[in-house]
Each structure stands twice: as structure tokens, then as C-alpha cells.
Amino acid sequence: MTSGKSEAVIKVISIKLAWAIIVFGIFTGGCAVSEKTLSFDETGYSESTGDDDFDELEDEFSEQQITIADPLEPINRLMFNINDGLYFLVVKPVTGVYTHITPKPVRSGIRRFFANLLTPIRFINCHLQGKPRAADIELKRFLINSTFGLLGIGDPAKDQHGLEPPKPEDLGQTLATYGVGDGFYIVWPLLGPSTVRDSVGKLGGMFLNPVYYVDSAEAAAAITAVKLTNESSFHKGEYENFKADAVDPYVAMREIYLQYRRKQIKE
């Protein structure tokens, strides 16, 4: 499956569900946020894609189906529906207001800042996967952008030194390279689609996220909320288009998630 298509849908579902964590944490006095739970976009890198990516979605499903055990399907479907409702209730209206009042150049700078902030996740997993050149580029980009790029708001590493960002790596991908299988499919409440392996990777990866070490749960929640809302602003309407084109959104999301992760692991 093409990177743009898979990443667009997964990005939207990740943002909308992780945003719900922040809201849930606020309503429960910060308890949920104090766990510093991350969204699926734990590497920080993202590529905005257009609606054209969704035009070929049905064709690609027919060309390649990936199977995985789904013993919890009744529960997973319930969680999918709950998470779906949270998107339309919370994320969509908030994102609409944010996009209206925040110019795109500002949002792009914020996006680059968070990508730079999450360099440790990508850097360490590059080494764990035996990709020293990618790790070296990650480190150089971090040093250049953190200084001359005003903490990553700018990207002089790319613009002036030609250092393109490597493919993002995370702990779930690292486990896969060491032969750990998917396990079975899970839809976590608030967190969205995953597998047993990726859930373990997510848990380990959060310790590499600098936001995890912010002392104040409220501050960590605010930082994460800004990141998620900002990223969501680049994907307005994509989730709605996905649902409109899918015969069974639950099955379609499961297939897209698995294809997306397969492609990431192979790269």
C-alpha cells in the first residue's frame, strides 16, 4: 500500500483518538494524562496527503488483504464506535477552530518543532534496527535544527545542508525486525487500532518521549494537546472521506492499519 494513503488514514485515526485521551484526562483530574500515553504518531514525523490518496483505497484493498487474528472483534467494534464518536464530538470542532485562527506557516513550524522534539525515539530505534546512517542523519538534523532552526521550528538541516529526514522508526518496528509477530488485533479505548506487538512497542516508546518527563501532568497534557490539534489541522476531512468510502469502516481501518505497519517495517 502506498505510504501516503496508509499514513493519511492512520494519522487521522491516531490524532483523533489520542486527542480524546487529553480530554478524558482533563475530565478525570489528570489521572489518564499522568501516564503520559502517546499517540500512534510517536516518531513525530508526518507527511500531509491530499484527498487523491483515498481515491485508490478500494482498489488497493482488493489487491492486497492482510489477515490477522481478531478474537476480540465484538469488543473491538464497540471500542471503534466509541472512539469514532469522540472524534466527531471533540476533535473535529476543536480542530476547525484552531485551523481557522492559526495560519498555516505557524502550524508548519509547530509541526517541525515536535518532529525535532521526538528525535530520541527515532534515533535509538534506528540503532536498534542496525541503521547507523539513518541514526547519524537523525542526530545531525537534531543538532542543526535545535540551534540554527530555533528548536526545530525551522529546518535548516534540510534547506541548507540537504539532510532529508530518514524514514521514521519506532519500537514496534524494531520488535518486528527481531522476529516478534503481530499477535492479535486490538482496538484500545481512546488509543485506537493496534496489535499486541505494537502495544508493547508503544508502552516502551513512551519512555523515549521527552514529554513523559514533564513533572506536571497538566503541562504534559497541554503540550500533547497542542501537538495533536496542530497535526489534525493538516488532515481535515480525511477521516470523513475514509468512512464514506468504506463498506465496513471497522474492517477497512483494520486492513489499513496492518498494511501501513507492514510497509513501515519493510522500509
Count of distinct structural domains = 1
Distance between the termini: 12 Å
Strand content: under 5%
Shape: globular
Q: Low-confidence stretches at least 5 residues in length (pLDDT < 50)?
A: 23-40, 47-58
- The Cα radius of gyration reads 18 Å
Descriptors for this entry?
267 residues, mainly alpha, two-stranded antiparallel ribbon, globular, 63% helix
Structure explained in plain terms:
With 267 residues, this protein is mostly helical. It has one domain (3-266). The protein contains 13 helices and two strands. The protein has helices at residues 3-27, 52-55, 57-63, 73-101, 104-117, 119-128, 132-147, 156-159, 171-177, 196-205, 217-232, 238-245, 249-266, and strands at 185-188, 192-195. It has a two-stranded antiparallel ribbon. A hairpin with a 3-residue loop joins strand 1 and strand 2. Residues 23-40 and 47-58 have low confidence and may be disordered.
Q: What's the short version?
A:
The two termini are 12 Å apart. The chain has 13 helices and two strands.
